[in-house]
Write a structure and sequence with these properties.
Blueprint: H1 2-25, H2 39-51, H3 77-88, E1 96-97, E2 105-106, E3 112-114, E4 138-140, E5 146-148, E6 153-155, H4 164-169, E7 175-186, E8 189-191, E9 195-197, E10 216-219, E11 222-224, E12 228-241, E13 245-254, E14 257-265, E15 276-282, E16 286-298, E17 304-333, E18 338-365, E19 371-399, E20 402-429, E21 432-437, E22 448-468, E23 473-487, E24 520-534
Antiparallel strand pairs: 1-2, 2-3, 4-5, 5-6, 7-12, 7-24, 8-11, 9-10, 12-13, 13-17, 14-17, 15-16, 16-17, 17-18, 18-19, 19-20, 20-21, 20-22, 22-23, 23-24
Length: 535
């Protein structure tokens, strides 16, 4: 009986061989060849291991890996065909290469399964799927890719196969460029009261003086340079070692934030004001002011005059930053489509701001046709330049076409703070003009350029939600928060204690105002929206 079974098996094998030969003879235009490098043998071995629950489906570098979805029936002919490849070194059913196409792969019914450039093992890379066989071992995945009858990814399709992260890593997209629009709010700078007013009819001794119930502040005594700033950020990067080690550089800048006040009070020629003044504090701690506009003002000489005044206050703030980071993958989970990177690099940041006050007083004597003009100018400018190193963590999670990215990092380094104070007074009377150093709040005692270096930290948190528009394009929206521990800001450098005029005789007090050397912190936060292109 055993001999009979052997003979029958031999006859059956010969018949099958004859049928294959005839079938090939009927199609002389397409010759199938063996694949002798063991590529299919490796794939079949992976299938076998998955069948017995010993591991996950895998292949060599030419094909993606997917987790096993459960035990496989050992007697299934689909896997039996692949097992045959291990011993016979022939392409299994549905995985036969055609000599006519450049690396095309066809199934046993001569229908194209995938095609592309031929690798070292002569097998196509499955980058395209022009057709499929609905009655065979394959079907079309929702992404357009090819899957087998166990819903395991074979190749082709869009960027949404069974493992988004796997496809991202093996997509050969080495470079990326991102352009973001930024709409951020910044912590405002507190400035002292710089311009005041009082109702018409207020007595001269208390008009415009801080602390009086009739005095109102027109500018200052609050935070300025607030509001939403528009900006942009450009990021460019490249993978250096696979998708494991990469480099990324970015530059960010904002439009200049401005704050302005202009006021004018006219009392000559029947004008009705309003009353204007510039407040300060006289030693030891007495509120006072420089009167800019006031009717029938009594001068130091006792002569009455109508004061016509104009005042302008302006402030500017500009921030920009740049950096470069190396990133190295420290964790990856294909099943969860998530990974994490450790980042480190260099960060530069610059914050430049200023506050300037200009006033003009026209003195019109009431009893004499004489006019004098006095102008005062004070300016406080600050420059902050940070240079330091960064360290942080970045992670991304994929869910279908959605991508969630988060980043936390801190920069530690040196903040170079520079403060410039300048001021002058111009007096024109009788056709003669004289210019003096010092204005109202900027005097000889604090005018100059002052520089110091301080240690500073810049922690930063970023969050982005992205949607994959195509394999190369991604739209993003996100949130950013950044804090800088030490900066010099102009409002913090204004000393309102002014010794005018200097005390004559006896011990001289400390000349004021002085350079305050008063650093502070700043935060910035807001939304980002942009486009990313990978290639």
């Amino acid at each position: 009986m055993i001999r009979v079974a052997v003979i029958v098996a031999a006859i059956a094998q010969a018949s099958l061989l004859s049928f294959s030969t005839v079938a090939q003879a009927q199609q002389p235009q397409q010759t199938r060849k063996k694949v002798s490098d063991g590529y299919y043998a490796k794939r079949a071995q992976a299938k076998l291991e998955a069948d017995v629950g010993q591991g996950e489906d895998s292949s060599d570098a030419e094909g993606p890996v997917s987790a096993a979805v459960g035990p496989r029936p050992g007697g299934d002919p689909y896997y039996a065909a692949r097992m045959a490849a291990m011993s016979n070194q022939v392409a299994p059913v549905g995985m036969i290469e055609s000599e006519l196409g450049d690396g095309q792969v066809i199934d046993e019914r001569d229908e194209i399964v995938g095609e592309g450039a031929t690798g070292d093992n002569g097998v196509g890379n499955y980058e395209q799927v022009p057709s499929y066989n609905p009655n065979g071992d394959y079907s079309i995945h929702s992404s357009g890719g090819l899957v087998d009858n166990y819903n395991e990814y074979v190749g082709g399709g869009s960027c949404e196969p069974h493992s988004i992260l796997w496809d991202e890593i093996h997509s050969c997209r080495t470079y990326w460029v991102t352009a973001d629009y930024l709409a951020w709010g910044f912590k405002g700078n507190h400035v002292p009261a710089l311009v005041t007013t009082s109702p018409n009819g207020t007595a001269q001794p208390v008009a415009g003086v801080l602390g009086q119930p009739t005095t109102s502040v027109l500018f200052g005594d609050n935070r300025v340079l607030t509001g939403i700033r528009s900006g942009g950020r450009i990021t460019a990067g490249a993978w250096i070692v696979g998708d494991i080690v990469g480099i990324e550089a970015n530059y960010m800048t904002f439009g200049t934030q401005e704050t302005n006040l202009e006021a004018q009070g006219i009392f000559s020629g029947g004008g009705t004001g309003p009353i204007l003044a510039r407040p300060f504090t006289a030693p030891p701690n007495t509120p006072s002011r420089v009167m800019l506009a006031f009717p029938n003002f009594t001068l130091a000489s006792g002569a009455p005059a109508n004061l016509d005044g104009f005042v302008r206050v302006s402030g500017h703030s500009n921030f920009q930053s740049a950096g470069v980071d190396l990133k190295r993958m420290v964790a990856i989970d294909f099943q969860g489509d998530k990974r994490m990177f450790l980042t480190g690099g260099y960060r530069y940041a610059q914050l430049n701001e200023d506050i300037a006050i200009y006033d003009r007083i026209t003195t019109n004597l009431i009893q004499l046709p004489l006019t004098g003009i006095t102008t005062n100018f004070d300016q406080f400018r600050t420059f902050n330049q940070f240079n330091g190193g960064t360290v942080g963590l970045t992670s991304d999670i994929r869910r279908g076409r959605w991508v969630i990215e988060s980043q936390a990092k801190v920069a530690l380094g040196n903040m170079r703070q520079t403060v410039e104070v300048d001021g002058n007074t111009t007096v024109t009377a009788g056709g003669v003009t004289q210019v003096f150093e010092g204005g109202v709040l900027a005097q000889k005692s604090n005018i100059g350029r002052f520089t110091r270096n301080q240690f500073a930290a810049i922690p930063e948190f970023n969050f982005k939600l992205g949607y994959q528009l195509s394999c190369n394009w991604r739209a993003t929206v996100g949130y950013n928060f950044t804090w800088i521990s030490r900066v010099a800001r102009p409002g913090n450098q204004i000393d309102t204690l002014v010794s005018i005029p200097p005390v004559q005789g006896g011990a001289q007090p400390v000349a004021t105002p002085v350079y305050l050397n008063n650093p502070t912190s700043i935060w910035m936060q807001g939304i980002t929206t942009g486009l990313e292109y990978r290639f």
